[in-house]
Amino acid sequence: MTKTLVVVGAGPGVGMGVARAFGRRGFRVGLIARTKEKLDALVGELTGLGVTAAAFPADIRDRESLTAALSAARSALGPIGVLEFGPSPTGPITHAAQTTVADVTAQYELHVLGAVAAAQHVLPEMRRQGDGALLLTTGVSATVPAPFLANVGMAMAGLRNWALALHAELAPAGLYVGTVTIATAVVPGGEADPDLIGERYYRMYEERDRAEEVIGDPAAFRALVDSGQGPSAVDR
Fold first, then answer.
1. For residues 76 and 111, what is the distance between their CA atoms, to the nearest angstrom?
2. Three-class SS of residue 54?
3. Taking 70 as the threshold, does the pLDDT of residue 191 lie above it?
């Protein structure tokens, strides 16, 4: 039976790499992000590859908007068998000592509460079917504290912690949760090409033998932080 992948926070990098990897294997693909014009261009690329795809614009920080988009994707494409959640950080990214409650709240709204809302929306049907997968993407600041990525790192670390807990809890029910830490710049044509990354997501989904995958070299990022050159780096 044809399955459906929904990518929340879809963009031309990791999100499309994942979409192409699953689409090549017969998955229908739903893309969720804020900007309809950008989504339409991504859908056009997928349909040009022979993938059944559709766009569902939504603001991930708006839980009603997000869950409405997920419902629309389910209605248009069928039951959601795989959810990939990986929006890039948006808004102010703060240094540790300058981080405010508002700064942290904005990143938690996007990365943590967005993921929780999306997962809670699709999990009941996955549980009924006894199958399904959540693939939750974080950046390197989830595991390497970086003073110049303080509010993003707090959210990424929270998302990673929750993903690992979900992995342990849901495995006995036949559901798979994996978290992917992107510890490198995503560059087409290189070792971190979006299509190569997408293939690694698909292998995680297929093999289901690990809770976490790390793409890139966290030690190199840690050395960057220790060198004091970090403010020019961008998480994910």
1. 26
2. strand
3. yes
